[in-house]
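Thread: quick sanity check before group meeting

JM: Hey all, I'm pulling together slides for Thursday and realized we never actually wrote out the predicted structure for the chain we discussed last week. Dropping the sequence here so it's in one place. If anyone has concerns about the input, flag it before I start.
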Amino acid sequence: MDCKSWGSRDIVFLCIIVLSLIHVSLGAKVRHFKWEVEYMYGAPDCQEHVVMGINGQFPGPTIRAKTGDTIVVDLTNKLHTEGVVIHWHGIRQLGTPWADGTASISQCAINPGETFEYRFKVDRPGTYFYHGHYGMQRSAGLYGSLIVDMADGEKEPFHYDAEFNLLLSDWWHKSVHEQEVGLSSNPFRWIGEPQSLLINGRGQYNCSLASKFSNSSISQCKFEGNEKCAPQVLKVRPNKTYRLRIASTTALASLNLAIEGHKMVVVEADGNHVQPFAVNDLDIYSGESYSVLLRTDQNPYKNYWVSIGVRGRDPKTNQALTLLSYSATPASKLPTTQPPVTPRWDDYNHSKAFTKSIYALMGSPQPPKTYDRRIILLNTQNRLNGFVKWAINNVSLVLPSTPYLGSIKFGLNNAFDQKTPPDNYDSSYDIMKPAPNQNTTQGSGVYTITLNTTVDVILQNANALAKDVSEIHPWHLHGHDFWVLGYGEGKFKNGDEKTFNLKNPPLRNTAVIFPFGWTALRFVADNPGVWAFHCHIEPHLHMGMGVIFAQGAHRVGQIPKEALACGLTGNKQN
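JM (edit): ok, ran it. Output follows.
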């Protein structure tokens, strides 16, 4: 077919899109997986504890697919006493909003003994992952990697010889059930800092690969009889280019990654190509993913440290360490040098310099020049009848028993609060100080957005309950990517939009707001469904730090009856 014969430029462009979709679909496959979720014993950091696994694996199995493929996961809940769902983080679920895997939002939790079929298409290449989205099951270990390669015949805009996948997480010895009880107690009991950081589910507690460089009396790690917590060494050949796919599914920790003696070139962020730029280390927040290119051009007779450390919180958790090992050197040979030192936890200038270096690759979609609606979301820590909560515009989110997707589609108005949450907050609010009135409200209301309109969201950070404390919050949007238009200090004000980057802002699905600052996002509400937008720090979401966006839910097609077989929608599916 000759697209040029179709006439006008717009028609030619449409023709090219149609042909590309046909090309992708012709080579597409349906990839089937049968999974059983259950608790099991494991020792992620060399200390035995109960973990949540899939088919006896922790982390769960890696899904590998190609652009245009359909993923089918038959998920059976074998937890005995609690429900479960899985969210496919970064997958937009175009046309399949019920497969987003968000309990009380897109579906009912899968009851013990039941099986639910997730069926969805992966429409873009990139580095993604999946995780539990019910209670705090992500903290319990319910997560794994989801890698989408280019379709057959397509190529990435960069070259590499081989790749490694690094899924980063944090780990507590206290069970998630005990953590949840503490967060919901009066007096409040915080979960504390993680005992360990994990790389692909492996870490070391109370010992270190680099103990001789430690200021404490921590011992040298030994893995005889406990190989499952031994680090996975990255074995490389000299003078090659490797792609490192890095994703963070942490429940709390913001992280920094560095590789001794090697620069990294960032080429992908959240499944979108970016203008390549070189770094010595990178910050990664919960919910984010990156691809970096690494050139193995150093002394091949040495091994080099790969270090992961905590950022944004006063670290009480040791670095996670593994090795970059050249093929000529035994993997057992530890470097004689100190591992890279993680930048100081509160060096936010270092964090901002990295984040503000990310721009979309030339040729990427550009944002609309104007918006139809602006929503400013004030992030505050509050109290509700003595209980500590997080709130957005003074509303702490409480999820209903009936999934929003079903209740909105079928017009069940009594299933959730009908009062729309506010689009803004009181302009007299001083974000730099604790609020004079620290009380909040709670609700299950929804932001209803007109389909195919452009929405600006301003995430506004503020002082928490304690004086001079403002925390980092990574926000994740389901069902969409957004353009990150800019960051600012203090309170967002009229005129700040003049600083927005409308030329080459990066497309992301997760963005951070820094302490006492703001972040500006823009997205097009073009995906019918009901979508969560929330802080990706697990205890913060548990404490109410999120909102719900609904758009065109009445246009959603037939929803599988198993997705809505609970609450008021249980008898609406025929």
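AS: nice. Residues 1-10, 12-24 have pLDDT under 50 and may be disordered. The longest strand covers residues 30-42.
JM: adding both to the slides.
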